[in-house]
Amino acid sequence: MSERLLVLVRHGQSDWNLKNLFTGWKDPDLTELGVSEAKAAGQGLKKLGLAFDTAFTSDLTRAQHTLNLILGELGQTGLHVEKSQALNERDYGDLSGLNKDDARKKWGEDQVHLWRRSYDVPPPGGESLKDTVARALPYYNQHILPAVLRGERVIVAAHGNSLRALVMVLDGLTPETIPSMELATGVPLVYRLKADSTVESKQVLEPAKAEA
Ligand SMILES: O=C(O)[C@H](O)COP(=O)(O)O
């Protein structure tokens, strides 16, 4: 029986995460901590005895770098990787590059929280989570899910909000319950799906210290 394995992992800490800047489609790389988070994710997956047949990531460096580091830990650097803009972070529009605390001072906690975590309030000039679902979910349905259902073991390295879009659907969250759903950097979510594409099991892989 196929195990229908789907691992979702948010990239490790990026330079702009460290600086507390809205990032969206901007393209900073990982920090040193981000690199060690990604390696620890790979080591955690290896400890579980997992390996992959297919990998997906976004068009952005921090997600691609995270995936490469994970595959390196697994001894799978030659794996074919599908890259798509559909898995990019939510576009933060005019907020991109602004400091999140400065934004709270300027527009207030509540407004900034709505932009960051509501389902359908887009930041100025950017995408709401609903908009992100509208481009990430078709990609999931057309490319990622068919691979999982064919029996390929699949890993997806992407972003806080593009993965929240997928987790919303997998976990059956609603516009009311999605705002409290947070994804930590470099923490893999290990799903096993049923043949009807619903979730059989979900394991959040606790962070472990990377070995040198
Ligand atoms: O794009 C960003 O700034 C982050 O990757 C996600 O930001 P958020 O947690 O503020 O949505």
Q: How would you characterize this protein structure?
A:
The chain has 212 residues and is an alpha/beta fold. It has a single domain (5-189), classed as Rossmann fold (3-Layer(aba) Sandwich). The chain is 39% helix and 14% strand. The protein contains 7 helices and 6 strands, in the order E-H-H-E-H-E-H-H-H-E-H-E-E. Strand 5 and strand 6 (199-204) form a beta hairpin. The longest helix is centred in the middle third of the chain and has 21 residues, at 129-149. The model has no long low-confidence stretch (mean pLDDT 96). It binds 3-phosphoglyceric acid. Residues 22-24, 89, 92, 116, 159-161 line the site of 3-phosphoglyceric acid.
Task: Chart the SSEs and their pairings.
Elements: E1 5-10, H1 15-18, H2 32-47, E2 54-57, H3 61-73, E3 81-83, H4 100-107, H5 109-117, H6 129-149, E4 154-158, H7 160-170, E5 189-193, E6 199-204
Parallel strand pairs: 1-4, 2-3, 2-4
Antiparallel strand pairs: 1-5, 5-6
The structure holds 3-phosphoglyceric acid.
How many DSSP-defined strands? 6
Name the shape in a single word. Answer: globular
Structural class: alpha/beta
The order of strands across the largest sheet is 3-2-4-1-5-6
CATH architecture: 3-Layer(aba) Sandwich
The H-level CATH homologous superfamily, spelled out, is Phosphoglycerate mutase-like
What is the third-level CATH name, the topology?
Answer: Rossmann fold
CATH level 1 name: Alpha Beta
Range of helix content: 25-40%
Integer-rounded radius of gyration: 17 Å
- Total domains: 1
Q: DSSP strand (E) fraction?
A: 5-15%
Poorly predicted ranges:
none
Q: Biggest sheet: strands, sense, closure?
A: 6 strands, mixed
Give the N-to-C terminal Cα separation.
36 Å
Number of helices: 7
EC number: 5.4.2.11
Site (Transition state stabilizer): 159
Pfam families: His_Phos_1 (PF00300)
Keywords: Gluconeogenesis, Glycolysis, Isomerase
